UniProtKB/TrEMBL annotation:
InterPro entries hit by this protein: CheY-like_superfamily, LytR-like, LytTR_DNA-bd_dom, Sig_transdc_resp-reg_receiver
Boundaries of every Response regulatory domain copy: 4-117
Keywords in alphabetical order: Phosphoprotein
Chain ranges of the HTH LytTR-type domain: 144-209
Residues with the 4-aspartylphosphate modification: 55
Entry protein name: Response regulator transcription factor
GO molecular-function terms, A-Z: DNA binding; phosphorelay response regulator activity
Length: 239
């Protein structure tokens, strides 16, 4: 499911920088960009978006980012972008998803938008049409197809992604991979393992099994992760 978004920033260069990042993320769909926050308000009177990338300090206009959120309320998610980190704390009074302090790298941007993605997926009853994500590998952003992943195993700052037909080795911590994965498809079961829910073949007291090449790979279940695993596999339905 695409996440519609707009950009509001009084600096053209900042907008161009952000548009370049947005173009790299398949699940983001840009609906417009504005240097004047009042024009963005007018746009939102007749159009609905899921996410607003919003600058905080805009001294040449009648309203700033905080005023913008006061007017709009919580009709959409906000990711704030600013050169002034002192605005971070007061901004969270308005259900801000994340706060990006300029200049910010693509990895940090991706982490922020994946938070919005996870929130959108949790709130939606529609099937998820997004089946891939991107991780940074040696200066490039490599696509990973979620439907192909069986499990992910880590050792220190290295991870191995086991797929149906391959094994991908990356020099990144498992926490960075976890931020990219949609929580409705994957679950952390151990400090060193993340598994695809639909690939779980059996669950025992201290381990679970996933089939690969006609064999069952046994993966340990960490005590701290057992409850999360069971809730993910056997969710409690509300009456």
């Amino acid at each position: 499911m695409a996440i519609t978004c707009i950009v509001v920033d009084d600096e053209e260069m900042a907008i161009e920088h952000l548009l370049g990042y947005i173009a790299k993320v398949p699940f983001l769909r840009l609906e417009g960009s504005f240097t004047d926050p009042t024009e963005a308000l007018t746009f939102l009177e007749n159009n609905s978006v899921a996410l607003v990338f919003l600058d905080v300090e805009m001294p040449n206009f009648a309203i700033d980012g905080i005023d913008f959120m006061k007017i709009m309320g919580s009709k959409q998610h906000y990711i704030l972008t600013t050169s002034y980190p002192q605005y971070a704390l007061p901004s969270y009074d308005y259900d801000v998803v994340d706060f990006l302090c300029k200049p910010y790298p693509f990895d940090r941007f991706l982490k922020a938008v994946n938070k919005v993605r996870a929130m959108t997926e949790t709130a939606s009853d529609e099937p998820d049409s997004d089946d891939h994500g991107f991780v940074r590998i040696e200066g490039k952003h490599q696509r990973i197809d979620f439907t192909e992943i069986l499990w992910i195993e880590s050792e220190r700052n290295y991870v191995s992604i086991y797929t149906l037909n391959d094994r991908i080795n990356l020099h990144i911590p498992i926490s960075e991979i976890e931020e990219v994965l949609p929580p409705k498809l994957f679950v952390r079961v151990h400090k060193s393992y993340i598994v695809a829910k639909k690939r779980i073949d059996l669950i025992e007291k201290e381990q679970l099994g996933i089939k690969k090449d006609s064999q069952t790979r046994l993966i340990p279940i960490g005590e701290a992760y057992r409850k999360t695993l069971m809730q993910a596999i056997f969710p409690i339905k509300k009456k």
